[in-house]
Amino acid sequence: MSAVAAEEAAIRQQIGKVIEGLRTKDLDVLREPYAPDVVSFDVEPPLQHVGIDAKLANWARVFEVFEKVDYELRDLTLTIGGDVAFGYAFGRLSGTMKNGVATTGMWVRVTYGLRRIDGIWRIVHDQVSVPFDILSGTGVTDLEP
């Protein structure tokens, strides 16, 4: 395996931990891939969530609503340069809510910024967004990749 392929595999493994942590509703697993000072621009207010505790609190709110959680990531594309990398993909959170209602969720755009810290790739920034319809002033949540 080439050095670039090994780095990409390591990054994909870290992002895979996010998916695993969501599916198992395990905040300890979710903590692993993020840097302690992660800055997240998520779809929920406020405009930014700063630090791992804020990021995990955001995921904990998901677990308060969902009995069963699934997360799908499509078309993850990575660019790696030295000790920094970025990636982008389409993601969809779905599952069964605690009230018994199943939801297929919505597709969002996800961007990751990563940095190799002490030899381990960590997510230092993520951004989740939906397209915006400028005429209606609302997010468009029914698109699919």
What does this structure look like?
By secondary structure, the protein is an alpha+beta fold. It has one domain: Roll (Nuclear Transport Factor 2, Chain: A), CATH 3.10.450. Helices cover 28% and strands 46% of the residues. The strands form 2 sheets. Strands 1, 2, 3, 4, 5, 6 and 7 form a 7-stranded mixed beta sheet that branches. The protein has a two-stranded antiparallel ribbon with strand order 8-9. The two termini are 30 Å apart.
Mean pLDDT: 95
CATH architectural category: Roll
Give the SSE order as H and E letters: HHEEHEEEEEEE
N-to-C terminal Cα separation, in Å?
A: 30 Å
Structural class: alpha+beta
β-strand amount: over 45%
Rg over CA atoms: 16 Å
Number of domains: 1
Kindly state the number of beta strands. 9
Main β sheet profile:
7 strands, mixed
The number of helices is 3
Bin the helical content: 25-40%
Question: Might you state the CATH topology name?
Answer: Nuclear Transport Factor 2, Chain: A
Top-tier CATH class: Alpha Beta
Oligomeric status of the shown chains? single chain
Rough outline = globular
Low-confidence stretches: none
